[in-house]
Write a structure and sequence with these properties.
The complex is a heterodimer of chains A (about 200) and B (about 80). Chain A has about 200 residues and is an all-alpha fold. Helices cover about 65% and strands about 0% of the residues of chain A. The longest helix of chain B is centred in the middle third of the chain and has 7 residues, at about 45-50. Bound molecules: fe (ii) ion.
Chain lengths: ~200, ~80
């Protein structure tokens, strides 16, 4: 179960519309290394994870990624909402506008719609945590390419915040992997005393 | 900021200091990945944490725009 706070994790107040930038930032909403893929990946991998620490890490980070999804949606919305159709067309956002108007649709910057093919749940804790480490690096990289494409401080500050969160998540998944490696290496050999009903043959003999 | 200085130099220069991470990882096996454990030392204030995106100074690694972009290294630098 979840509880919801009606507040963004980091404040977003973009004053200048920029529809062209919106159709790039949308990639962190529904793109291959975006926040929707991240949250679904972690929240789904959680069920087959081992050790309480690693399960909690997936649950907490998966939840935080949903808060990031909300931030990205807000950024796209604010960048689109006061743009004129002429601005949308001239900024190269015409294709997006044709399909989605000024709405927020989960797609990649290239236009590819969101798909679960962006993520994996292998059901093997080492495989899944290793994927998560890679996912955090890919998200960090995407934020850097987005940061390179804008000078608007209203956009830059939330992007930098989100990028730093990916760095922190990488560290946490790395620690979770250590716990899981230790747990899987632990010898687990249990010796059960033979119960009486199995001894009956020996007694009768 | 963690830069190219050696971590042990950085952390052992003041023997009293709280070292915010594991410096040596033991029992490493081949074909496995390891990230050092982080240990709790100092944290930013809540408002600094919000601005930085982390409460932990040792994890704060801001991106410096285009100078981080990958470029092939010249023969003289490689
Ligand atoms: Fe993340």
């Amino acid at each position: 179960m979840w509880s919801y706070d009606k507040i963004l994790q980091y404040p977003i107040k973009i004053k200048t519309p920029n529809p062209g930038l919106a159709t790039k930032i949308i990639s962190q909403y529904g793109g291959p290394d975006g926040e929707l893929a991240a949250s679904l990946r972690y929240l789904s991998q959680r069920f087959s994870m081992v050790t309480p620490e690693a399960i909690a890490t997936l649950n907490d980070i998966g939840t935080e990624e949903l808060a990031h999804l909300e931030m990205i949606g807000t950024m796209v919305h604010q960048l689109m909402k006061n743009a004129t159709v002429e601005e949308i067309e001239s900024s190269g956002a015409g294709a997006y506008y044709t399909d989605h108007g000024r709405g927020v649709y989960p797609q990649a910057a290239s236009g590819t719609p969101f798909t679960a093919a962006f993520l994996q749940v292998k059901g093997d804790p080492i495989v899944d945590l290793t994927e998560d480490l890679a996912a955090e690096q890919k998200a960090r990289g995407t934020y850097e390419w987005l940061i390179n494409q804008t000078d608007d401080p209203d956009v830059l500050e939330p992007l930098k915040f989100l990028r730093e969160r990916e760095v922190v998540h990488y560290q946490r998944f790395g620690e979770a992997l250590r716990k899981v490696q230790d747990y899987l290496q632990e010898p687990r050999l249990f010796i059960m005393p033979k119960p009486d009903f199995l001894r009956s043959n020996e007694l009768n003999r | 900021m963690i830069n190219n200085r050696r971590l042990d130099e950085m952390y052992y220069s003041n023997p009293e200091a709280c070292i915010p991470q594991e410096l040596v990882i033991e029992n490493v096996r081949l074909a496995a990945a390891y990230v050092p454990y982080q240990f709790m030392c100092e944290v930013f204030s809540p408002i600094e944490s919000l601005a930085a995106g982390t409460a932990f100074p040792e994890l704060f690694s801001p991106y410096n725009r285009k100078d981080n972009e990958n470029r092939p290294c010249r023969l003289s630098e490689c």
